[in-house]
Specification:
alpha+beta; 12 helices; 18 strands
């Protein structure tokens, strides 16, 4: 997925008979483009996107999914060039119906996964002052886990060795792969969503933006037919990944937020809980992970996103009624019964008496009380003061009321405030899936201290 390629071939819609020559280009950063010597949108007013375009190329059969029509242009001699931007490339098979693009297995690699696991089957011994070497490799035992009733996963390892060149160069590069097996065929978008969830966990654990490096689908329904045997096709998947950036770095174990070695005995349960957490806290996780796309740049938007994540997490996982509902309803009825207002003002007042939620200050205090750790407490001298500063700053940067400017923080102080709040919400998420705070102190200090 991280490599560029250009495939030349011929293309058509699933319902067409005639093929059109064209070139497909893929770049994980720049996206995908298909340029045709012709177009599938013949009318000037036809701006319709194409759900599927299939191709026969120098690299085999290809299916392009959700192809955005970018227009057409005329070149010399009346030749028309049509351009499309597919969102997904499936290489290795022709699919003609999006609803039937389903698979029972996916194999993929994730940036920083091998570094996070910190496992190796390689043993190198140097003898006699570098004149004698002994190299051994033993395959690392697989790591198994369940994600749902329909999905089982495993992490496997490989260390292929190559020898080449005039100097008999030897190269052995270890890598980790994740395989998800579904008991029933699953829609390809659902599988990509499952991959994103795992990528999100690796991003948080390593404290560096991760992304899928390669994705391969398999299913018994799609086979390569030959005279001797039929084997399952490997269907490669490519798409522009918005989180990919060359600036993202491989992280050493000492730089991770929490290491695999600290949680290895509970990892299967932790990753299963992480998937469950995604179901009810997806917005919170998105807001937290968005920070890693450019973690070295601070903006007030990052402060607002962090506070929104805190507020949403508390709303989902804590009692969201400031006072019991029955008592609140009675209180509202009493107030409305004692005022004499015209219909317009009465409606206005009633609409403002519907909120029975704790304020942001109370939410922050609740979360710190339950999810504090040594790092967080070392940064906060008084919890109520910290919570008030966060609330005042949130109010100002949300509404920009001049009256609130004096109470709000800015610059480096706002950045430091954001880092502490980020530590709070990250601790909440990881505590929720079963990672104790004691395993987070060093990682938080290194990355947010």
């Amino acid at each position: 997925m991280t490599s560029k390629f250009i495939h030349k071939g011929k293309w058509k819609l699933p319902t067409d008979e005639n093929w059109t020559n064209g070139t497909l280009e893929f770049d994980i950063e720049q996206g995908t483009s298909l340029e045709l010597f012709g177009t599938f949108n013949h009318s000037f007013l036809d701006r319709e996107n194409q759900k599927i375009i299939i191709g026969k190329t120098t690299n085999g059969d290809i299916t392009l999914i959700d192809c955005i029509y970018k227009g057409k242009k005329s070149i010399h001699n009346g030749v028309i060039i049509g351009k499309y931007e597919p969102l997904i490339i499936l290489e290795g098979h022709h699919f003609t119906d999006i609803s039937k693009i389903k698979f029972s297995q996916v194999i993929f690699r994730v940036f920083n996964l091998f570094q996070w696991l910190n496992l190796s089957g390689l043993d190198v011994r140097i003898k006699n002052q570098s004149k004698s070497y002994e190299i051994k490799y033993e395959e690392i035992q697989k790591i198994e886990f369940n994600l749902s009733n329909n999905c089982k996963g495993k992490i496997t390892f490989d260390g292929p060795i190559t020898t080449n060149g005039p100097y008999n160069a030897i190269e052995l590069q270890e890598e980790a792969y994740i395989t998800l097996d579904y008991s029933e065929q699953e829609y390809y978008k659902t599988i990509l969503g499952d991959i994103s969830k795992i990528v999100g966990f690796i991003t948080l654990a390593t404290f560096e933006q991760s992304y899928p490096k390669r994705i391969v689908f398999r299913d018994n329904e799609y086979k390569i037919e030959s005279k001797h045997s039929n084997v399952n096709k490997y269907i490669n998947c490519y798409y522009e990944h918005t989180s990919y950036n060359k600036k993202h770095k491989l992280r050493n174990p000492g730089q991770h937020l929490v290491g695999y070695q600290d949680i290895l005995s509970n990892f299967p349960l932790i990753i299963e809980k992480w998937f469950s957490l995604y179901n009810d806290s997806q917005e919170v996780i998105f807001l937290v992970l968005n920070y890693f796309k450019d973690k070295y740049k601070f903006t007030t938007d990052k402060f607002i996103d962090t506070v929104r994540a805190i507020e949403s997490y508390h709303r989902i996982h804590y009692n969201n009624d400031r006072i019991p509902k029955a008592e609140f309803d009675n209180l509202v009825s009493t107030i409305l019964g004692q005022v004499k207002l015209n219909n317009e003002d009465y409606t206005w007042l009633k609409q403002r008496l519907i909120v029975n939620e704790p304020n942001l200050k109370s939410r922050i205090e609740d979360l710190i009380q339950k999810h504090s750790n040594e790092f967080i407490m070392s940064k906060i001298s008084k919890i109520n003061v910290f919570a008030r500063q966060t609330t005042d700053s949130r109010n100002y940067y949300t509404h920009y009321d001049p009256k609130g400017k004096k109470k709000s923080l800015e610059g480096i102080e706002l950045s430091d405030l954001t880092q502490i709040n980020r530590a709070i919400i990250i601790t909440c998420l990881l505590n929720n899936v079963g990672i104790d705070s004691e395993y987070l102190n060093d990682g938080l200090q290194y990355n947010l201290g």
